[in-house]
Amino acid sequence: MNLGLLINPIAFSLGPISVHWYGIILGLGALAGLLLAIQEGKRFGLSSDFFMDLLLLGVPSAILAARAYFVVFKWDYYSQNPGEILAIWNGGIAIYGALIGAVICAVIYTRRKGYSFWRIADICAPSLLIGQIIGRWGNFVNQEAYGGPVTRRFLSGELHLPDWIINQMYIGADGLYHHPTFLYESLWNVLGILLIFVLRRRPWVRAGEMFITYLIWYSIGRFFIEGLRTDSLAFMGPSWLSSFMDALWAPMTAMFQAGYLDPSYGTVRSSQLIAVLLIIACVVLIIVRRSTGMASERYNDPIINRKTGLPAGVEPGAEASSASAKHKENQDEPRNQKPTV
User: Fold this and answer.
1) Which end of the chain has fewer CB atoms at under 10 Å, N or C?
2) Is 334 part of any domain?
3) What residues are designated binding site?
4) Nearest-angstrom CA–CA distance, 119 and 135
5) pTM of this structure
6) Which burial class, exposed, middle or buried, applies to 23 when counting CB atoms under 10 A from its CB (0-12, 13-18, 19+)?
7) Is 333 domain-assigned?
């Protein structure tokens, strides 16, 4: 193996400051998500400034919550190494924590702006997916979030991966190749974003359902991919819950072996449990919102600002000015015109 092809996690240095690929990749993911949201927002009259402000508030909220989520589950380590709690450039952020932080920020921001959270979340659903599609490659550079051991032949012969990916999946700590679970999740999210692009143009889609679809799609993929990983956040759960999670994952055993989870660390992978609960909650939410009339708006309906009662992009007084101008135009038309024969 040519170890010279391993990627240096540090992209470049500016004096004492090292710029990591991890941060660059996360930044590119956020930028791609912003551009997608701005493009779709134009259809509804939302300005680019609206989404830029949301990004400036949402990204720090997501990162802080993601890191806090990770640190809580790894507290035994970080309590002994408090200086590493803020070292996110070395990896160690949890996507479900990021979602919690982003959603809380978005709810507050959209309400202050006078918009429905569901309408804005729908527009941002592809942005979240593209951010994860790109962001997972930060884990690739850092050689983290990988799965259980595999052979090089599996990576090259079965998956047909190029050498630059295969070599990065060689983990020097144990001298073995590992499942590129970062790649599995990235590709799963590519399918998810294509699905949302198709569904959001359907006339029967209700407001909020694109964001809910994103949550369901991501959680399905995360549940099965998480079972391959060897670095899962976990907790000591009851035996029936552990058996239930294993039974749900059982269909994967026809092709893969589950990643090792140290029973002294935990018996239930937290991301798997959250994924299952989220899928159930989202399905119930769709049914309840439709049956009670809470989802009366459709995705393609105009987005109304609840403070002004006007469609997004229309400023108060703009309609009155337009009507006044139209009235004046009618008044200025000649009144003694002969009818055209």
Assistant:
1) C
2) no
3) 136
4) 25
5) 0.87
6) middle
7) no
